[in-house]
Amino acid sequence: MRTRKLRTRILISFFSVIMVFAVSVVVFWYYVIENDIIKREQNKVKNDLNSAREMYKEEAEKLKDVVRFTALRFFIKDTIINDDNERLTKELEEIRKAESLDILTLTNKKGQVIVRSRNPSVSGDNQAQDELVSKVMSDKKIIAGTVYPYCKSKAKPGD
Predict the structure, then answer these.
(1) Residues 6+ positions from 157 with CB-CB distance below 8 Å
(2) Which of 61, 74, 77 minimizes the C-alpha distance to 142?
(3) What integer pLDDT is reported at residue 21 of this predicted model?
(4) Quick check: 125 and 140 in contact, CB under 8 A?
(5) Burial class (CB in 10 A: 0-12, 13-18, 19+), 47
(6) pLDDT at 131 over 60
(7) Do β-strands 105-107 and 113-116 pair in parallel, antiparallel, or remain unpaired?
(8) Arithmetic mean of pLDDT, 28-34
(9) pLDDT tens-digit profile of 46-91?
(10) pTM of the predicted model over 0.90
(11) Alpha carbon of 134 to those of 34, 128, 153: distances in Å?
């Protein structure tokens, strides 16, 4: 009977030591994972997002430069004065391709389309209600931004 009590006590002590050790290991690994691995990955994601923001800003600045340099080209004024939409369309299409743009549309100061490089047969419509066009018209400066046409919330074009 005494040996059974001793055996039970040793067994309980043995399991207690194992349980304490197991709980300690689990707690230790939780803190290692929480404080090291997860925080490292969160920092990596934060850095990647910052890099993406910078790349986006660079691309927006490049687009502003393309628009500014295109607007300053001598042929635009000449072709508009001479009503030479064929040449204007051709020149804008070459610029669009050279700069890898999806679209390039020329409007007047009221937002009325003069020429589209992508779809030259459609012109004369008014784009003043477009968020980017209306912002350019109101601020009188070149902007670049992203518009989400399929979202219900209003997009905010960036400067």
Answers:
(1) 131, 132, 135, 143, 144, 145, 146, 147
(2) 61
(3) 95
(4) no
(5) exposed
(6) yes
(7) antiparallel
(8) 85
(9) 999 999 999 999 999 998 998 888 888 888 888 888 888 888 888 8
(10) no
(11) 48, 5, 17
- The DSSP secondary structure of the chain, one letter per residue, reads -HHHHHHHHHHHHHHHHHHHHHHHHHHHHHHHIIIIIIHHHHHHHHHHHHHHHHHHHHHHHHHHHHHHHHHH-HHHHHHHHTT-HHHHHHHHHHHHHHTT-S--EEE-TTSBEEEESS-TT--S-B-TTSHHHHHHHHH-S-------TT-SSPP----
Single-letter code of the amino acid located at 79: T
Q: How far is CA 133 from CA 59, 63, 129, 141, in A?
A: 19, 15, 7, 10
- Establish how many alpha carbons lie within 13 A of residue 64's alpha carbon, considering only the half-sphere containing its beta carbon: 16
